[in-house]
Amino acid sequence: MPDRPLIVRLRNWVGDVVLGLPMLQRLQDAGYALQLLGKGWARDLLAGHGWPVQALAGSTGERIAQLRALRAPAQALDGGFGRRLNAVALPYSFSSALEMRLAGLRAIGYRHEGRGWLLSRAVPRSRTRHEMAVYWELGSALLGQPAPLPDRVDLRLSAQHQAQADAVRARLALRPGYIVLCPFAGGTFEKLDKSWPAFPQMAGQALPPLGRDLLVCPGPGDEEAQAARDYAGCRIATGVGLGAYAALLRGAALVIANDTGPGHLAAAVGAPLLSVLGPTDPARWGAIGPTVQIVRRESGWPAADEVLARARALLHAG
């Protein structure tokens, strides 16, 4: 059977897009030709998978026009396009379902905040299962059959990603065995900060005696300013795309991260990851994979010496 076009609206956060990868790959393996819409960074992040990714337009009207422009060639390629579920709305927002409805698409998505009537099929969203399982189950609903949940995420990197990472390593004179720190965390979890407060102490005092290069890759704006202030003793790489960042993570001896997108990136490329969590519930949002170790307390944050001991053990094991 020829590939069936399927229009997919991605989530807006790096970690969510990474956790949705197993479901997207499963849909492709089942014969769907994916057409993805997401944040501007999604094209670079997913370049190794070969999926076409459009940067989501800014206004509601522009997004509806964008979806209609994707619908037209899909209908020309697939005579049954308009008679089946032909779109996936991964965001939970009312607007994402409305835009697909107004664009004439038959979308499957989550029943959430009164938007179920806008979807051709509305699926209940679990609030207890891991987010990767939530996306996987939406794929199962589209395909009409369950399947075992994978135990890891596989982010594919392109040759260009690797070349960009090699250029960063050369520019910063990063020695093999370097440690990547991911101390920044966007958003909150149940209105609580997800940033481990001991990260500057860890970078400035606890880790330097190990004799390894420390790398920090801040995003633009506030993260760059914070990196210059709190991580002056580290190698700081700015302006690094997500694909190159993932390649840098894959080459690290250890990654220490908050509950943040780069932590999920590290797990998805098989890097040794020490995930430092505070309020985040790992059963729902923790990084997934065989190289992941989580350090967390039932109340409050882990102490710096506890994280350092775990880091030393991982480096020794590696």
Protein model, in words:
With 318 residues, this protein is of the alpha/beta class. The chain has 2 domains: 4-143, Rossmann fold (3-Layer(aba) Sandwich); 159-317, Rossmann fold, CATH 3.40.50.2000. 39% of the residues lie in helices and 17% in strands. Strands 3-2-1-4-5-6 form a 6-stranded parallel sheet, sandwiched between helices. Strands 11-10-7-12-13-14 form a 6-stranded parallel sheet, with helices on both faces. Helix 11 links the parallel strand 12 (254-257) and strand 13 (273-276). It is elongated and about 65 Å long.
Topology:
Elements (H helix, E strand, L loop, with lengths): L3 E6 L4 H6 L1 H9 L2 E7 L3 H4 L7 E3 L4 H18 L9 E3 L4 H9 L4 E5 L9 E4 L6 H13 L15 H13 L7 E4 L5 E2 L2 E2 L5 H8 L7 E3 L5 H9 L4 E2 L5 H9 L3 E4 L3 H8 L4 E4 L5 H4 L6 E4 L8 H14 L1
Parallel strand pairs: 1-2, 1-4, 2-3, 4-5, 5-6, 7-10, 7-12, 10-11, 12-13, 13-14
Antiparallel strand pairs: 8-9
